[in-house]
Amino acid sequence: MEESKLLQYFEGKTIFITGATGFLAKIFVEKILRVQPKIKKLFLLIRKSAKKTVEQRLQEEVVDTELFQVLKEKCGEDFNSIISSKVIPISGDVNYEDLGIVDSELREIMWEEIDIIVNSAAITKFDERYDVAFGINALGAMHVRDFAIKCSKLEMLLQVSTAFVHGTQAGLILEKPFHMGETLPGAKITYLDINTEKAIIEERLRALQTDLNSTEKDIARAMKDLGIERAMLHGWPNTYVFTKAMGEMVLEKFKEKANVIILRPTIITSTFRDPIPGWIEGVRTLDAIFAAYGKGKLKFFVGDPDSILDMIPGDMVVNSMVAAIARNGNRNGNDKATGGDLFVYHVGSSRHNPVTYAHTKCLMQRYLTQSPLLDDTTGNPIAVSTPKIFTTMSTFHNYISLHYLPFLKILKFINVLCWNYFDGVYTNATRNVNQALRLAQLYKPYLFSQAIFDDANTENLRALIRGSNMMNMPDMLNFDPKCIIWDDYFLNTHFQGLAKYSLK
Question: By CB distance 3.0 to 4.6 Å, which of 18, 124, 136, 275 could disulfide with 45?
C-alpha cells in the first residue's frame, strides 16, 4: 500500500480518541487534521475539571499549543471553522461504564458514526496509586472495549501500550500479545486474575477509609505500596507496566468484533521534526534525570553504562499509529481473511539504532555544561559537575549507607536533644534519601535493561513507506529510527525542547 493510499484511508472516517489532552493524542490529532483534511470527524474524550469545561480544555490545552501552529498557518483563516466542525470534545472518563458519557443521544450517534477508536488514556507514573492506575490502565481499557462493542461500523481499535509490559526480561523481545491471566517469569503468583485484583483494591480501600487514624496521605502511600507489591508478585517491576499489561489482556478477544492493534512504544521523547522539532510536554520518564541533574539536585548516576536506552520521538510513534491503522483498518481487505485480527507493533530504536546509557549521560553533561539551566530563585546559571557513576545497585546502596545514613542518625539524635527543633530539617533529609532510593528502584528496569525489542511487524510497515511514491516527502510518515543521529537529536532538538517547553 503506497503512502498516499495509507492517508487516503482516513478520508471520510470518524475517529474516537481517549486521553485526548495527553502528549501523544495531541500529536495524533494535529497529524490527522494536517495530512488528511477530508477526515470526517474527531471525537475527543476529555474529562471536565472543576474550573474548566471540556470545550475550554480543548481550546487551551490542545488547540492553543505551539504544536498546532503549523496547521494554523496551513489553514489560515479557515482554521477555527475546521476545528469547530471536525473536532468534537466529549465530556467523559474511561474510569466509568459508557466512558462516563451521560448523554444517551450522543452515545447513540457515536456508536453509529465511529470507524476507528484510539485509546491513549493512561496513567504513566511508575508508582501511582494502585486504584488509580488500575482504574484507567486496566478497567479503562475494558470500558473502551465495551463501548467499542456497540459501535456498529467499527473497523479498528488501537490500544497505546508500552514495550515495557515485558518487565525485566532480557534478550530479544518478540511482538507477541498477552493472553488473559498470563504472568511474567519469576512471578510468585502464576495466574493474573483481574477480578481478584479489583476485589483486593476495593477491600484495601475500605479498610483504609474506615480506619479513623488513616490520613489521606496514609491512604495514598498504602495504595502506592499495594500497586508495587501486586505487580512484583506477578512478575512486573512497577504498577504502570503491570496495569498496562492488564489493559492489553482485556482486549485480546475483541478481535472477534474488529481489528485490534496493540502499539508498544518504548521511552517516548520529544518530536523529531514533525510538525516542529523538540516539542514536548511534561518531564517524561528519563527526562526526570536530566532535570534533576541540570537543577543540581542529582550528583550521581545509577545504571549499567552499556545498557541500551530504547527511545523513540513522539512524532515517530504517531506516524506508526497512522500507518498501522490504515494498513490494518479494512477488515475485508484482499490480503487478509474476513473477520478481525490482533496486531502487535514495537516502536523503538534498540534493534536498529541503539544508544547506550553511558552515551546519553555524556550528552546530558555536554549540553548542560554549554547551556546550563537557570536557578528558579536567582535566575543564575546552574553549573553541573561530573557525576559519580554507580554501575550496580549494590554500590549505590553502599554509597548511601556510608555517606547519608550516618548523617541522618546524627541529625535525628541532635533533633531529640534539641526538643525537635530540627524536626523539619530531619524530615526533609530523610524524605530526600528515601526518594532517591525509591526512584533508583523504580528506574532500575530501564537503567539496567538487557532487552532488545524486536520490531519485525513495525519494519514491515516501514517497508510500505519506503516503497511508496511519496518518498520526496520523507517526514510525512517517517518512523524509521535509523535516520536519527542521536548526538544531533539530543543536543540540538530534545534537550532544547525540554528546556523550552517542560522546564521553563
Answer: 18
- What span, in angstroms and rounded, lies between the C-alpha atoms of 16 and 40? 11
The closest alpha carbon to 346, from 454, 460, 481, belongs to 454
The answer to pTM > 0.70 is: yes
pLDDT tens for 275-302 read 999 999 988 778 888 998 898 888 888 8
Nearest partner of 228 among 218, 220, 238, judged by Cα: 238
Residue 179 has pLDDT above 60, yes or no: yes
Write phi, then psi, for 202 (nearest 5 degrees): -65, -40
Please give the single-letter amino acid code of residue 320.
S
Q: Among 13, 26, 224, 244, which one carries the catalytic annotation?
A: 244
Alpha carbon distance 222, 436 (integer Å) = 19
**DSSP type of residue 191:** S
Question: Mean of the per-residue pLDDT values for the chain?
Answer: 90
- Omega within 30 of 0 (cis) for the link into 275: yes
The CA distance from 65 to 33, in Å, is 15
Reported in sequence order, the residue ranges of 168-318 that DSSP labels E, i.e. its strands, are 171-173, 259-265, 267-269, 300-302, 311-313
- Identity of the residue numbered 202: E
Share above pLDDT 70 across residues of the chain, in percent, rounded to a whole number: 90
Separation CA 347–CA 321 (nearest Å): 10
Three cell numbers, residue 325: 491503522
**pLDDT one-digit tens code per residue, 366-376:** 999 999 999 88
Q: Which of 130, 240, 357, 426 is catalytic?
A: 240
By residue count, the chain amounts to 504
**Gyration radius of the chain's alpha carbons:** 24
Active site (annotated) includes residue 240: yes
Query: 3-state class of 504 per DSSP?
Result: coil
Does 357 participate in catalysis according to the annotation?
Answer: no
Q: Which grid cell sits at 231?
A: 505487580
78-98 pLDDT per residue, tens: 999 999 999 999 999 999 999
